[in-house]
Amino acid sequence: MNYSTLLKVIISVSTLFFLISFKSYSTENNAIKSFEIRPSICVIERRDNCEYQFIFIWELFFSTQVCLSEKGSKEKLICGNELTREVGLNINIASSTDYNLFSLDNPKDKKTRSIDIQRLGVDSRVLQRRIWSVF
């Protein structure tokens, strides 16, 4: 084997080790693969609260204990260790609210999603087309 072939083999092997170690590090420390809320927007009348059954869906890289809570609250809405979970919760909120899904084993492993509130007549804009406008 000549020098250039040996150099190519060394670079290929070291690149492979780097990619494997990076992949294992990213999944080893973070259990939460995905987290979403359906629907993520609630449209309500001006003075009403949003009362609806929202679906919380998450997927984990590996089985570990995770909990769902409203951001800023210590109360856990639900906990579990399933790799995939889909749960419906009846929620009554007056303003846009963030929800955290976090690992009990690793407090830094956390994902946040929001339920946005849109009030009719306040948040929705009525576009008025002007005759002189090209847009």
Which labels suit this protein?
elongated, Immunoglobulin-like, three-stranded antiparallel sheet, 20% helix, alpha+beta, 135 residues, 2 domains, five-stranded mixed sheet, 1 helix, 44% strand
Quickly describe the structure:
The protein is of the alpha+beta class. Helices cover 20% and strands 44% of the residues.
What does this structure look like?
With 135 residues, this protein is α+β, with helices and mostly antiparallel strands. It folds into two domains: 1-30; 32-119, Sandwich (Immunoglobulin-like), CATH 2.60.40.2470. It is 20% helix and 44% strand. The protein has one helix at residues 3-29, and strands spanning 32-38, 41-44, 50-60, 66-70, 76-80, 84-93, 97-103, 110-119. The strands form two sheets. A five-stranded mixed beta sheet has the order 2-8-7-4-5, with no helix packed on it. It starts with a helix and ends in a 16-residue tail after the last strand. Residues 22-27 have low confidence and may be disordered.
